[in-house]
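Hi support team,

I'm opening this ticket because the web form for multi-chain structure prediction keeps timing out on my end. I have pasted the exact lines I submitted so you can reproduce it. The total is 781 residues across two entries, so I didn't expect it to be a heavy job. Is there a limit I'm missing, or should I split the entries? Thanks in advance, R.K.
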Amino acid sequence: MGKDRNTNQGPLSRRQFLGIGAGAGAGMLLAACGGSSTPPSAGGGGGGGGGQFGEGKDYTGPNVSLAFWNGFTGGDGPFMRKLVDQFNSEHQNIKVSMNVLRWEDFYPKVPTAVQSGNGPDIAIMHIDQLATNAARRVIIPVDEVATVLALQQDDFAPAVWQAGVYKEQRYGLPLDIHPLLFYYNQKDMQAAGITEAPKDRATFEAAAKELKGKGVDNPFWVTSTWPAHLMWWSLIHQFGGTPYSEDGSQAQFNSDAGVEALTWQVNNIQQGYSPKNVANDAQAVAFRQGKNTLTWDGIWMMNEWAKVKSLDWGAAPLPQIGDQPAVWASSHNFVVTSQAQKEPNKLQASKVFISYISDHSIDWAKAGQIAARASVRESPEFQALEVQNIAAQQLDYVKFPPAVPGIGEITAPTFELAVNEAVLGKKSAKAALDDATSKANQLLAANKKKYGG
Amino acid sequence: MTSTDLGGRAAPPAAGPGAGQVRRGRGRLGGGGAPGGGGIVPYLFLAPYLLLFGLFVLAPSVYVIWISLHDWDFLLPGKPFVGLQNYLNLFKSGTVTSEPFLQAMTATGKFVLYSVPLLVAVPLAVAVMLNQKFPGRNFFRAAFFAPYVLGVAVVGILWRFLLDPNIGLVNHMLDRIGIHTDVPWTTQTPWVWAALVGPTVWWTLGFNAVIYLAGLQDIPRELYEAAKVDGASRWQQFRNVTLPGLRPVLVFVITITILASANVFGQPYLITQGRPGRETRSAIMLIGQEGLREFRMGNAAAMSFLLTMALMLISVATFLLFRERKER
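Hello R.K., no limit was hit. The queue was backed up. Here is the completed structure from your submission:
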């Protein structure tokens, strides 16, 4: 699953609806035949000498076109498209064509497409996908780009800058950071006499209790699917644990912190703050309809809430339920694929494009993102973005997974499943996390063997 | 009914390519062997199809077997040969794949078990009704077929929201008529099965009904009239004229319905997301997840090979079961 499935978060626009229909419908029919049509492999083309991205920040060669792929299918798509159009009009000898596909399709498709030479030259990938795609030789190191463009750790939040490194080489150049955020319904809060957004466990639980007493049947809907496991990811860190050991070799979901985190989520249901059986997206729909007062969701949802005229909402950093502040976040990173490596001109042009978008990331921040660069965050323009600034208060304690190949794919069959089972009352928090941990450890071991540690 | 009625029917009983198969089978088609000539000509006619079939079905199928014997990731240079290990892992308890595979096959089996009887029986009833003469018949024929033109994504997302336990219209309506418990349609067993099978029946019954309808129209009127003369009741007519007349169609419908149901993907993917836990994750969902998202294509290939084998066995069994009765 993609990290920010904006499109899946609510009522779809008609066009999105039909688009998905056509794709999935065809898939359904084709699913009838058993054969896989994976093209034969020709081995990866990694490596690459020094200086392949060329000297300086500019590109002066002959006309070149760049294929740029990303998964911005939601409200963020038009923002990126506008930036790309702007880039094209300002650069006569570089033409960037942007292709957007859903993140769920993006990650399976990009490796195949790159392999066959019909894929992207540059793309956007999430931070937990970098190591995997580096190990599979889909993307190439970009240390050189960082050097040429003078992008340095000082200008980025350290966590996000360091997470782009795999085996001592940099594979991603961070564009943004998108954490979870705590949203609340102002009208309900005022009616319950709550003047300040809850900041910790005591005030959060008191607020839920107060709201329930003042006529909100279920003030805090705890969903059984997305983003429930991201809430848990935040909470386990808050309670002092980490899902994976530092080197990413061991899963420790079932640590005391992990169990406490999940237990807290489930308790909200038992105390009636949340209805039972909250299915996919229901908590977001309920928030839009004013039935759900408190919700934890991605920062990118801010533009979705803004569309609902009747909704008076506010945002705050995620409350600190455990002993220390922590929040789940992901980051969109520029990557350069091994396909671009075949043509030096493309490589050289790619750095111009990356530099341009990175310099203009204030316009991207408006799509509901925190700019990755401190220089942009400190600009008056960014300071004027209220919600993004609130979210940026969390930057010191955002938590990414370790940069280990295959780690992004461990989420779904392990702790995402465990959170679902516990929230639906199928298993106790401990039992669900025990199962998830042993499965994750098997998968980690298999990945280690496969990717060579 | 009288002969005037018979004359009024648009389609004469013997029309259509597959029409007379049942009635005249023994008379004409079954009688002779191959009509002389032969040689290379039939193969030339078949060649275009065979080429496509070989290229897009046969070759990939063989390739799948090859992949299933390796620890396969098409992007990695090393694809260690592991023999039958991928298959053994599916059956050895404690491995990463065995429990999910068993669960996915069970979920698929359950879906087939719950959906196929309904998808065979309900469309038949609908077809028999729509085969009557009544005003507005064409409207109803279109109405029953209409959902079939929708894509699975439309159907899936539509029903996911209709059946949502907390914000769905169905529970809201139930509440209105005095059933005040929120039924967890999309999150708890056994309700999830209703949430998967119900929409599937609504969605695809039109397709089976159309096939039945074509079959019904090929049953000669005289047979019904003869039965009526012999004093057969409506039920007896159905039992002794309609059903035997439909047998080849029925075999076809049952076979394709089992295959379609066993390949279910979109409904659990969209309506329940395979939840609760993994209880509604179908085999195709698991194979897709394993092979295309987690890049363990060897495992995925082994799973799809076993699924294919199981489906072939079931198809042959269905076919034999119904054919046996034909050879008296």
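A quick check on our side: Residues 1-32 of chain B have pLDDT under 50 and may be disordered. Let us know if the file doesn't open in your viewer.
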